[in-house]
Design a protein that fits this description.
By secondary structure, this protein is an all-beta fold. It has a single domain, classed as UDP N-Acetylglucosamine Acyltransferase, domain 1 (3 Solenoid). It is built from no helices and 22 strands. A 10-stranded mixed sheet has the order 1-3-6-9-12-15-18-20-21-22, with no helix packed on it. Strands 5-8-11-14-17 form a 5-stranded parallel sheet, with no helix packed on it.
């Protein structure tokens, strides 16, 4: 069963079972959302977006065209994704940059993910970080720009550098 709050504007039919969409979300018609996801209050999801299974997206997140989020990912509140490296009003690129968040990754609140990068499996991005490069699997990053601070196991055990 899919639960969609009546204040949300959900145009896609590509939503998996046991997914809950909270208040005031907007999800465009070509977005794909997997099973058992939790899309919190005030989230915007554009057309060319794929979200896997068991994903949590906290409040205030906008997911733009070109972003893929794999299974078991956590996206913290107010995480910012970009998809255009040279934005100009009323000028659109022929293709938006692609960003992929790999299985099991966690991105902390208020982080910014610059377009065209990959966040590796089970990696952890600390709150407020700015990601300007590809992030290897099982690593911990934070800061502006983010730098590697350690490694992390699949179970979440951190080893500092």
């Amino acid at each position: 069963m899919i639960k969609i709050h009546p204040t949300s504007d959900v145009q896609t039919h590509n939503i998996g079972d046991n997914t809950f969409i909270w208040q005031f979300c907007v999800i465009l018609k070509n977005a794909i959302i997997g099973n058992n996801c939790n899309i919190n209050f005030n989230v915007f999801i554009e057309n060319d977006v794929t979200i896997g299974n068991n994903v949590t997206i906290k409040s205030g997140v906008q997911i733009w065209d070109g972003v893929t989020i794999e299974d078991d990912v956590f996206i913290g509140p107010n995480v910012t994704f970009t998809n255009d490296l040279i934005p100009r009003s009323k000028q659109y690129p022929s293709e938006f940059q692609k960003t992929i968040i790999k299985k099991g990754a966690s991105i902390g609140a208020n982080s910014t993910i610059i377009a065209g990068h990959s966040i590796g499996e089970y990696s952890l991005i600390g709150a407020g970080s700015v990601i300007t490069k590809d992030i290897p699997p099982y690593t911990v990053w934070y800061g502006n720009p983010a730098v590697q601070q350690g490694t992390i196991s699949k179970e979440g055990k951190i080893q500092k550098l």
